[in-house]
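Exercise 3.2. Students should predict the tertiary structure of the chain below and write it as structure tokens, then compare their answer with the key that follows.

Predict this chain's 3D structure.
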Amino acid sequence: MFSQYYRLSGRLTSRSLPVGLGGTLVASVLLGLVYGLVVYWVPFIYVLFLATAGAGFAVGGIAYNLAIWSHTRNGLLVLAASVLGAVTAYVASFFSWVFVLADYDWGVLAPASMIRAIHWIIENGTWTLGSGGSANVSGLPLLLIWLGEFAIMLGVAVYIGWKQFGEALYCEETGDWIKNIELVGPFMGIEDPDDVQRKVEANDFSWIEQLRPFEVEEDEESVKLPRSFKSSEMVLAGSEATYLVTLRNVTNIVDKQGAVTRRVRPILRNLTVDRESFELIRQIGEQAAADPDSTEPAG
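Answer key:
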């Protein structure tokens, strides 16, 4: 079996810069102007925190979706769009915020006037902390608050845009994103992930013998989940010309209310195989998830 790990090609298209990057910046300007108005009109700090994170989420989502639409396969461009989009949105928010503070004076939107206005705000402040505050927040404390606000927006934008794009899969042969993704499992946790990786590197696909159906303790009344347990699962992604297999261990943590938190650790990430192997792995995986005696070597 021929195998290798899939990676995006890093290619750009004629739409990557004008749409992927330029479109993100234009949308970020509009988003920032709206965010600045929200900052002015909403006095509740918790709501503002959510608005800041929401703006970052929107910037990252825009960068990701425009990259997908423009068929961009370059993660660095998506990262740049997310970072520059967050910077653009935050800067734009000052224009709408100061514009309202200045009683809708259009003159304050001139760059020199805006700089003077922000300098005055830093020195004097425009708001207090809490209902009983006696002095406006200004100077270094105000700058630190602005820095923290921007850090939240930037961090969320990068996390949403770049990280989400890192999960995208593209088939160069068909010229489209891979949308046919199937989850197979769960299985019992893989006890020796290093052995699986060694076998894959040796082109030995007998690692699939390690897949066993997931089982939990049962009694006459219910199925009992321990507070922490391990499982594994496969993700199969395929197009007409590209076939990818991901195998991952999952640590499941159950809280007192019975809600399960999953911590995923990949063992094989987007392993490229041929179509025949892909179908065989799918068939054996589906059988192994249901029948403990059905698993046999795929190689």
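Discussion points: DSSP finds seven helices and nine strands in the chain. The radius of gyration is 26 Å.
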